[in-house]
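In full, the data.
>
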Amino acid sequence: MLHRLTLGLLLFTLLCAPAHAAEKYVAAADCYWPPMELMDANKQPTGYSPDYLKALAKAVGIEIEVRNVAWDGILGGVATGKYDIVASSVTITEERKKQFDFSDPYYEVVQAVLLPAGKKITSLKDLKGLKVGGQIATTGIFVVRNANVGADLKEYDDVGLAIEDLLQGRLDAVVCDDPVALYYVNKKTDTAGKLNISFKTQEKEYYGFVVKKGRKDLLEKLNKGIKILKESGVERQIAEKWMGSSK
């Protein structure tokens, strides 16, 4: 009798035990870079990158929580283990690869120069002597600075603040990634029709998800998910939702 009870208890325990929980990871995103990362009406992270991560997590059987984290210091946070992933439109560069590991690319971009509607430039050289704004420590700032065209650069914590100053006449131009520029030119209600993309750089850049050096297990999961989303067409659907095109 004792044997039967023990066996029954064991079977009951096995049958009622919870299923193996999915691995959980925390991703940081600076949610002021629309339409890639922004906050929804309920103050929750949304946009292309959070949607992409949710689809990726589902594809590979993991859980990813996206948290809003200020850009200043966001890369340092993944280095110290505060979170596992940076999903904040981070351009893959050789300099950054010395300090961090990157996933395969998940979005291709070029730099765009925004001007008030009706104004134009034909090259970065035309920015000479102009007041040009951009988000601090972003590729757009680096591109203008490295071009050495003599622009008066001003860096902002939030690209939206730079665009506000542009509309108020306190800046002559703003430089940012082209999906962000398209959002402000075409989709954002209070800026649509007031701005134009006057110039785009030819050099292509690629966004990647950032992890701490040595996180090969996590990197493999991210790369597997990226491949699935590309091949299944889900990546294209997410792009159409946020940019209106399957870029």
About this structure: Residues 216-232 form the longest helix (17 residues). The domain at 22-108+207-243 is CATH 3.40.190.10 (D-Maltodextrin-Binding Protein; domain 2). Residues 6 and 12 are 10 Å apart (CA to CA). The chain has nine helices and 14 strands.
